[in-house]
What we know:
The chain is mostly helical. The chain has a single domain, classed as Helix Hairpins (Orthogonal Bundle). Helix 2 (22-41) runs antiparallel to helix 3. The protein contains four helices and no strands. The protein is globular.
Amino acid sequence: MKWIKPFGYAWHGIRYCFRTQRNFRIHLLALLVVIILGSIVKLSAIEWLFIIGCSVLVLTLELVNTAIEYLCDTITRDNHPVIKIVKDISAAAVLIAVAGSVLSGSIIFFPKILNLLR
């Protein structure tokens, strides 16, 4: 069953990031809050698709950012200007995805929360 082995490697990577990366855990906690809130306000299927898409994007970029940082640290621990740029760009990708996700989530949740408060 050669096709199962890659799933094990991927699962190991996810577990490793969960154990070692504070931001990955923060993103997962935020996702849990969004899932609970989405269940309370009864999101539509389309709204859930946006939430899932944004969440997958943020978590994926956080994993890629971690991989890039580890690779850069393996190349050199010295303050190298190119390594700094690479790390900054990969962190910026996560930041942009998070900002877009927060904006999308606000557009989805804000009217629903207002309706609950009325």
